[in-house]
Design a protein that fits this description.
This protein is about 25% helix and about 35% strand. With about 180 residues, it is an alpha+beta fold. It has one domain: 2-Layer Sandwich (BirA Bifunctional Protein, domain 2), CATH 3.30.930. The strands form two sheets. The chain has a seven-stranded mixed sheet with strand order 1-2-6-10-9-8-7. Strands 4-3-5 form a three-stranded mixed sheet, with no helix packed on it. A hairpin with an 8-residue loop joins strand 8 and strand 9.
């Protein structure tokens, strides 16, 4: 069973802590099912106040604003345990955090990320927006034309341990 949670506008660190509760419960059950009850999976949706997050493989130098500009925008900066580089989160962006046991769906990490991209692209198609993948990159782009700058509309950054996922995607709907 997957619990659907809509947090509305929610602080990034508080949302991360909520993910960790589900994530750790799923891992505990997998490591010792006799001692730990079957844990619920979750799909957490929210928007965040202005925040820039840095993944484990990211480089802080890729932050395109300085700390004075962050303060002026009332934005925060958080180092995370997900994959990927720097990602902006803010009002007008739908953020989804699937905390799932991928083994229960018989899916690996690569296919999981592919399926997130596919779900986003199909949703975009419902709104008449042509969205695509770029070779060698994770995420979803629009306006993919030869000779023009591609625009990323959905960033994906996940953490997976023992086939349990957390973190997820950030889809720009109407961002500043």
């Amino acid at each position: 069973m997957v619990q659907f949670i809509d947090l509305g506008l929610a602080d990034y660190k508080e949302t991360w802590a909520k993910q960790e509760i589900f994530f750790n419960a799923l891992l505990a059950h997998k490591s010792n099912p006799n001692e730990h009850p079957k844990a619920e999976q979750a799909l957490i949706f929210c928007e965040h106040p202005h925040v820039y997050t840095l993944g484990k493989s990211g480089d802080e130098q890729n932050l395109l604003v300085n700390y004075i500009e962050l303060q002026a925008k009332d934005a925060t900066f958080v180092k995370t345990n997900r994959g990927g580089d720097i990602t902006y989160h803010g009002p007008g962006q739908l953020v989804g955090y699937p905390v799932l046991d991928l083994e229960s769906y018989d899916i690996g990490v690569k296919d999981y990320i592919y399926n997130i991209e596919e779900a986003i692209m199909l949703s975009m198609k419902d709104y008449g927006i042509a969205a695509k993948r770029l070779d060698g990159a994770i995420g979803v782009w629009i306006d993919v034309k030869k000779g023009e700058v591609d625009r990323k509309i959905c960033a994906i950054g996940v953490k997976v341990s023992r086939y349990v996922s957390m973190h997820g995607f950030a889809l720009n709907i109407n961002t500043d």
